[in-house]
């Protein structure tokens, strides 16, 4: 049974993968993660000693199965990171309404259920600091009429994060990281990239390192709870 593990959802690629690797390479905490599709990153994490559970949260009973697997594998948790996400536009949702359900399942229902079910494992940690960190989106505070469903679900995640911060204080800190542009998606056109870059005061594609910097800060802080930490290159300044 693992002690003081850090649990990260959706760590098979990109930001989640980067965070899991940083924990494995730079801390003594074991890593437990979820992934949906087999990707090179999954094998990479397993080779580094992480334990991965394959799960599609859209499947019936997936959350309960995962919770049982965690309870059978982990004796205590140092931190939980809600990273798994689906990014769909309202046009995508109009073509396939299951995407709406998927976003609310992954961004709202899953973090809510995990926060409740995993509290005893966080309580069992002998670490002085224990954390829940939700990766939201800096645009939860902005208007965007192309991503109404996505932002509604991420806004709900932001809201539940604040309320769990109050409920679980002072033992467990509960915070959000609110990214702006971090990594472009495969297939983004150069026109789209240019448009996104001009929306930040710091017009770069920074990469997952900046989310790791934010996560490290939150994990090491003894006095920060209930916040949403923007990592967005000053998007509100434009
Ligand atoms: N990248 C950015 O610039 C950016 C900007 C704002 C916010 N964020 C937030 O930062 C976090 C990481 O972003 P990212 O770009 O690294 O995300 P990503 O590449 O889309 O990865 C998200 C992971 O979640 C998994 N996932 C999604 N739906 C799932 C489901 N129903 N069941 C199981 N797993 C599921 C995916 O599995 P599969 O690999 O099988 O698809 C994927 O590996 C997300 O919360 C995102 O909203 C990112």
Question: What does this molecule look like?
Answer:
- By secondary structure, this protein is of the alpha/beta class.
- The radius of gyration is 17 Å and the shape is globular.
- The chain has nine helices and seven strands; from the N terminus they run βαβαβαβαααβαβααβ.
- The protein starts with a strand and ends in a 7-residue tail after the last strand.
The portion of residues assigned to helices is 40-55%
CATH architectural type:
3-Layer(aba) Sandwich
Mean pLDDT figure: 97
CATH class: Alpha Beta
Cross-sheet strand order for the largest sheet:
3-2-1-4-5-6-7
Distance between the termini: 49 Å
**Overall tally of structural domains:** 1
Cofactors, ions, other ligands: NADP nicotinamide-adenine-dinucleotide phosphate
Q: List the uncertain runs.
A: none
Question: Which percent band covers the strand fraction?
Answer: 5-15%
- Count of DSSP-assigned helices: 9
CATH topology, what is it called?
A: Rossmann fold
Please write out the topology.
Elements: E1 5-8, H1 14-26, E2 31-35, H2 40-47, E3 51-54, H3 62-73, E4 77-82, H4 90-95, H5 98-117, H6 119-123, E5 131-135, H7 148-168, E6 173-179, H8 190-197, H9 209-220, E7 228-231
Parallel strand pairs: 1-2, 1-4, 2-3, 4-5, 5-6, 6-7
The chain binds NADP nicotinamide-adenine-dinucleotide phosphate.
């Amino acid at each position: 049974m693992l002690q003081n593990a850090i649990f990260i959802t959706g760590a098979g690629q990109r930001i989640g993968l980067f965070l899991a690797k940083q924990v494995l390479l730079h801390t003594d905490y074991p890593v437990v993660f979820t992934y949906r599709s087999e990707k090179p990153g999954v094998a990479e994490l397993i080779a580094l000693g992480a334990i991965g559970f394959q799960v599609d949260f859209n499947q019936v009973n997936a959350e309960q199965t995962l919770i049982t697997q965690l309870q059978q594998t982990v004796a205590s948790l140092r931190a939980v990171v809600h990273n798994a996400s689906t990014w769909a536009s309202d046009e995508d949702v109009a073509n396939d309404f299951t995407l709406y359900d998927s976003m609310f399942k992954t961004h709202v229902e899953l973090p809510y259920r995990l926060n409740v079910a995993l509290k005893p494992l966080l309580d069992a940690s002998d670490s002085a600091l224990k954390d829940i960190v939700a990766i939201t989106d800096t645009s939860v505070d902005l208007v965007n009429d192309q991503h109404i469903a996505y932002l509604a679900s991420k806004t709900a995640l932001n809201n539940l994060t604040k309320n769990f911060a109050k409920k679980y204080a002072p033992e467990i800190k509960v915070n959000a990281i609110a990214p702006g542009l971090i990594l472009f998606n495969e297939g983004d056109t150069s026109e789209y990239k240019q448009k996104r870059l001009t929306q930040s005061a710091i017009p770069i594609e920074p990469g997952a390192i900046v989310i790791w910097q934010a996560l490290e800060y939150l994990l090491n802080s003894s006095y920060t709870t209930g916040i949403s930490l923007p990592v967005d290159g000053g998007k509100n300044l434009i």
